[in-house]
Design brief:
By secondary structure, this protein is an alpha/beta fold. Helices cover 32% and strands 14% of the residues. Helix 5 links the parallel strand 4 and strand 5.
């Protein structure tokens, strides 16, 4: 069974904990990591870009002048694309970019990402995390001892003091265990997670 050290906020080792091998010590499947990131980024796209074609432009459908005898090219209406203020020809239309991934594959992708961090020693477990006040300076000083400029901080429950203190810290993101995802794991490359959050993640990813 995989084990990992537990640290306090001053990075003193205070114990060890056993990790569930079915969550933190599985085979890393790179193709699932790729699929999970692709699906997550695709589903962020709004796809709402659009323009008005000649049917949507306000204006009359009357012919601007008679068909013959003027010496000009025949015209149907002033809403045509060649007129200023007319509709756009062949412009973009709203599009749905959403992709899907089955539940079993999504879970296995998240397990692969967590296992990758564990095997690369990029996973740090804290016994607890509390900040008395909202202070970016205190937050930075608290995590200075971990020597990580870029990391994902995962909590077991909402902590306003921690979240507000970290929001202006570059390359640091705070989230709850329920929001843990493959894209953020692969983006930040290091996780600092509380002991209680580890147990929540294991419970959510049980087979």
């Amino acid at each position: 069974m995989a084990t990992i050290d537990i640290y306090d906020i001053e990075k003193n080792k205070v114990g060890e904990m056993a990790l569930d091998d079915s969550v933190f010590n599985v085979e890393v499947r790179e193709h699932l990591l790729y699929e999970a990131v692709k699906v997550q980024l695709a589903n962020r796209r709004a796809g709402t870009v659009a323009v008005k074609n000649r049917a949507a432009v306000a204006g009359s459908g009357k012919k601007p002048f008679r068909q013959k005898g003027t010496g000009q090219a025949r015209q149907g209406c002033r809403r045509a694309p060649q007129y200023p203020g007319g509709g756009v020809a062949f412009g973009p239309k709203p599009k749905d970019y959403n992709l899907s991934m089955n539940k079993k594959a999504r879970k296995l992708a998240l397990k692969s990402a967590l296992s990758y961090l564990y095997k690369e020693n990029e996973l740090t477990v804290l016994n607890a995390l509390e900040l008395e006040n909202i202070s970016t300076k205190d937050f930075v000083n608290t995590f200075k001892g971990f020597d990580k400029e870029r990391f994902l901080l995962v909590l077991d429950q909402r902590n306003c003091n921690v979240e507000l203190s970290a929001r202006n810290v570059k390359h640091v993101r705070v989230m709850q265990s329920e929001s843990l995802n493959v894209y953020d794991i692969m983006r930040y490359k290091h996780i600092i997670i509380t002991e209680a959050a580890v147990r929540k993640v294991e419970g959510a990813l049980q087979p």
